Amino acid sequence: MIIEGKDLSKYYGSGESKVVALNKANLEIAASDFISIMGPSGSGKSTLLHIISGLDTPTSGTVTFDGKDIYKTDDQELSAFRRRRIGFIFQQFNLLPVLTAKENIIMPLLLDKRQPDEAYLKEITELLGITNRLSHLPSELSGGQQQRVAIARALIAKPDVIFADEPTGNLDSRSGNEVMEMLKNIWKGFGKALVIITHDSRIAQMADRQFAIVDGVLSEVTAR
Ligand code: ADP
Ligand code: ADP
C-alpha cells in the first residue's frame, strides 16, 4: 500500500452551520491502482483529495504514506512528500502564464533545487506529443495541449501517485478523450498509481477501482 486513508472525516464550521464534508472515509491506494472517485458537486471529492494528498488536515482519521502518518511529520517532510512522491493535475491546468511549456514542466524540480533528467523529459514529452511545443507559452497552446504540459509537469519528479482533479473538465470531448487515453497509457507504461476525481461516469468507468462519494460518504463500487 502506498497511501492509506483511514476513518477520514472533515468538518467545516460549527454549531448550526457545521458541514460534514467527509464522513469516515477509507481509501487505500496500492502501487499500480487506477482509481476513480465520482460524485456530484459538493459531495466532498476535493476535500478527500486534499486530505489524502497532504494538502489539508482531516478533522479526524489518519493518512499514512509508506506506513508513516503524513500529518504527524514536520512541515518540511510533508512538503517533500508532496513535491517528490505525488503529482497533481488540475481542471484549470494551473500553468504559469509567463513561463514556457518546458519551464512549467521542470518548475517542480527547480523549486526542489534539482535538475531535470533530460532523457526522461524527452521520453514523457514525446509520449504526450508536446516535444514541438516546449518553447511555447500556455496562451499559445490549445486546452488539450496545456493539459498535456500539466501532465508532464505532474510526472517530472517521478512521483508514485498522480492525482487528477476533473482533468477533462475544461476540455471538449475530443481533447478530453485524448487526455484520458494519455493518462491511461502513462499509468500502464510507468507503473504509477492514478487517482481521478470526476463527475463524469464515462471517465469513472475507465478505472479499475471505482468509488462513489455522496454527502461525504465514500464507498467502493467495484468488487475487489
Ligand atoms: P466537491 O469537490 O465534491 O465539489 P467539496 O469537497 O469541495 O466537494 O465540498 C464538500 C462540502 O464541504 C460542500 O458542502 C462544501 O460547500 C463544503 N466545503 C468545502 N470546503 C469548505 C470550506 N473551506 N469551508 C466551508 N465549507 C466547505
Ligand atoms: P472543485 O469541486 O471544482 O474542485 P470546489 O468549488 O469544490 O472546487 O472548491 C474550490 C475551493 O473552494 C476548495 O479549496 C474548497 O475547499 C473551497 N470551498 C468549497 N466550498 C466552500 C465553501 N462552502 N466555503 C468556503 N470554501 C469552499
UniProtKB/TrEMBL annotation:
GO terms for molecular function: ATP binding. Residues 3-223 form the ABC transporter domain. It comes from the Bacteria. Signal peptide: none annotated. CDD domains: ABC_MJ0796_LolCDE_FtsE. Keywords: ATP-binding, Nucleotide-binding, Transport. The keyword ATP-binding applies. Belongs to the ABC transporter superfamily. This is ABC transporter ATP-binding protein.
